[in-house]
Amino acid sequence: MNNLLKSCLALTLLFLFQDLSSNEVNIYTSRHYDSDDLLYKDFSNATGIKVNIISGKGEALIERLKSEGSNSSADIFLTSDAGNLWKVQKEGLFKSISSEKIMQSVPVNFRGPNNEWIGIAKRARVIFYNPENVASKDIEKLSYEDLSQETWKNRIVVRSSNNIYNQSLVASMISNNGIAATETWAKGFVSNFARKPQGNDRSQIIAVANGEADIAIANSYYFGIMLSGSAGPDQMKAANKVKMLFPNQNNRGTHVNISGAGVLRNSKNPMNAEAFLEFLLSSRAQSHIVNNTYEYPVIDTIPPSPVIAQFGTSFVEDKTSASDFGKFNSEAIKLMDRVGWK
Amino acid sequence: MMPMLELENISHSYNEEKAILSNVSLKIMAGEFISILGPSGSGKSTLLRIISGLEKQTSGKVKINNNIVSDDNYHSPPEKRNLGLVVQDKSLFPHLNVLRNVTFGIRGQKDRDNIGKDLLKLFKVDQHEKKFPNELSGGEQQRVALARSLAPKPNILLLDEPFSALDDDLKEELYMETKKIIQDKKMTVLMVTHDKNEADIFSDKIIFLEI
Amino acid sequence: MNRITNINFWILFPAIVFVFFLMPLVAVLSSLFGEYSDNWNHLYNFVLFDYLKNSAVLVFGVSVLTLIIGTGTAWLVSNFNFFGKRFFEWALILPLSIPPYILAYTFTGLFDSYGTLNNLVRNIFELEQSYIFFPNIRNLWGAILVFSFTLYPYIYLVARSAFLNQSRSTLESGRILGLNRFEISFKLAMPMIRPAIIGGLMLVIMETLSDFGAVEHFAIPTFTTGIFRTWYGMGDLLTAMQLSSFLLILVAIFLFIENKSRRNAGFVSDSSTHSPIQIERLNSRYSALAFVFCSIPLLVGFILPTSELMIWAIYYNPSFFDDRFLDAALNTITLAVVAAVLCSMTALLINFSVRINKNKILRLLSSFLSIGYALPGLILAVGIVQTTTFIDSSLLNKSSLALTGSLFGLILAYIIKSYALSNNTISSGMEKISIGIDNSARVLKSSGWNLLGSIHFPLLKTSFFTSILLVISEVVKELPATLILRPFNFDTLAVSTYIYAAEERMRDAAAPSIAIILVGLIPIIIITRMIRSSRDKGTM
Fold first, then answer.
1. pTM for this entry
2. Which superfamily, per CATH, for B1-82+154-211?
3. Which sequence spans correspond to the domains of chain B?
4. What is the pLDDT of residues C251-286, one digit of tens each?
5. CA B26, CA A71: separation in Å to the nearest integer?
6. B contact chains, 3+ CB pairs < 8 A
7. C-alpha to C-alpha distance for C322 and C227, rounded to whole angstroms
8. What is the mean pLDDT of residues A87-99?
9. Sheet containing B5-12: order of strands
10. Which of C3, C436, C441 lies nearest to residue B87, judging by beta carbons?
11. Do the Cβ atoms of A32 and C407 come within 8 Å?
């Protein structure tokens, strides 16, 4: 039994310790779209580089990166919210991207300061409404700020303040309107909720489709996913009952956020990392993204999917710097706590 | 001639209570069979435990074959003392068959099985070789226990009321066989019992232990 | 000589294990001596009281409900014969196989505005899409229901055992004194089993406070979600650790009460005058009532969720065996087996060490290691992350090996959490080995590793195996620590359900949920066997 014990122990120890060297790229991603798996496979097939994924909420991954420090084996941080990119940059965890090709592919307003991160896709946080319950004159020229008014009492649904998309929206409002004004707005906004925040973005759209509420705030690409039928017939039916509108067209524009990525400073495979980023910006990958997750592309040459494009592509975009989303994230969370946005 | 076992002023008490043994000294020569007779509570079993090394005495010395195995500074554990021990509840290993039980204490020798089988034959339980302890009667188990204790050829055999759980007629039978085997092998034996008859049959000398 | 090195290992090993258990705790508690950031102002003013209030309401509500359900059903099943009693006796513990977060996910799938049951009602009665029959479940009341219906079996088991062990003569004296059946139960029987029940209740409370998945899904701010939000949302690990310390202290209080009550539980039965209590046959009206009362927890806590999960799995997700699921299942099993074997070995070695050394300090150490089960997985994970990064940056600095990001931290967490389970199983197995066996073996020159390997281990095979099974079922259910500590490419079944539920994809969560419940049934089977055999013997 002695020998058996000892060999078991040895094997287990071997199993436990991580080896930090081989031809691969390690990605920490907070994008939770199944279709991304195909992207990774595509990349591996084309380059022979193995792709290792750890997925989780953006904040969780960031904390993990912080505590791992120089021992981290992560090469790329990929996320669906610019606020997260800012946080990682602030911790000094990114390194500048050296590839000229990458820098040239991405328009300047989708690059992070110091070339430390790039956007790979775009989405808008828009308003959904049911035309049967909402008169078009009421929503003409609607802005986020209008939603705190009494007329919308009991008619609004939005997901929990725990979610980064809402935090970034509020952060952008703080950046533009200041804390005090945003807080006043938020108080009114929260008092108009038709129900306590629950469920994800799609739940809000469905609630509007079913008449449980009249206005929902959600990300544009979910609409594309629902309409395409890839999420099932029920969701497609619900999506067909609602319409999408871009708020704040009269002033600064609709809140726009990006999916983006950067190479981590402690990366052990920086070449493979940049190769992956290049791949994400290739027409093949961009096509895949727009046609599967229905986000807007960052590359001009690729058109967005017709499913989402039908609602307009030349809407006024809020030019607030994505860095501000991260900068005011902490303030946004506290503000939402103060006004009771659960 | 040096004694095989020597106890010098052994005293023992558990947990600061009244001493259960007080200044016990004795000498046993090789080949002798000594019985210790005494009522319950007199510390007979404790004495055996101390000699075997399962218990460390509060004070005093134990010497086996003229080597100090235990005194105030040093205490050699049971596994080092090359003794045999048979207790009342036999304590056969339930997961091993009879032969494995008997050969358990024999280290390393290639013919351990043969040694085991010979002993089983001597004790007339060789036909149960492959059986497990729970399949044997009380008397058979005790024979196996005796065989097991003799297999490693111990210096001294310690017996703690080994026959008290058996019926009278079984006892008689076992007495005769055991005595013969012990004499043939010229074993040094220390037996503890409360049965005077038993002590008479086996021993060269009887020591009385009082409370 | 040899004996010296023997002692060294047997004392060194428990000491090393002790250090590994202690490090995460020290890491978390040491935060209490650090700086208190500005975030505390915000916490104090806006959310801390919410956390306290919600935790208190949860604990109170769950306590009341589990006491009623657990004690009530146990009382019925121990004292009376009625239709279905033999079935309920063991079936009432089935909800234990369902971890609270899975019940939470299933309930939302059932009771949400556009969930199964509401859809059903709308379809049957042809109502408007905006009509919602079942009230919203994603709130404190829903959470109280969820915890109560999965955790009541702890109270049930303890109460039943205590009832069965009660002395008939004590109760009959009550009869002679003129108390009726009802009064006997409430004035005599229940107070007598109180210490045992308190122990079970503490377990229920600790499980409730430790949960993360269910409360997060229901969007209820409690300590665990608060810790998570402070760490990840505000990026403030230190404050999160300080919050964790407070939760730890709270848990320690309940742990202390549980320990004390376990000692006091001894006065319940006086076995010298013990004779089994008389069982009364209920008339048909009361029999029906008893049947209904016992059916409800079984229906709500087990039958309803498992049926729904199976329907989802079959109707909506015919690819039960898709890659993701098989991957997660394989990971889960491997991890669970490794952790279970290591945990059981640790318990075996330490119990053996305590047995051969008879050292009071070792015994205390062993008891201390058992408190791991009370530690919330989330807090353990926080402490372990600190521990592994510390070890990596100090001891393993220049090597290409790293503990952080490997399975080491996760397995350590599992061992700490499951040690009590292993320890109980193995120590009760060891107690059955009489010391005479040890003595004979030692005289026959067997000691240390030889004694362990040739005598103790073969005799403990059943206990060892049972311990492995029990730890496997614990590990498979674990969620928060796994979420935080898992390495690359490594999702477990529990993590899969969490991710799907977070995306509101309940139907996809069905397959891994069912797998978890199946594994969770293992300890139920073991306990059921014990219940059945105790019924035949008339005692537990």
1. 0.84
2. P-loop containing nucleotide triphosphate hydrolases (3.40.50.300)
3. 1-82+154-211, 96-152
4. 888 888 887 877 766 544 444 445 566 678 888 888
5. 69
6. C
7. 34
8. 91
9. B21-28, B5-12, B59-64, B67-70
10. C436
11. no
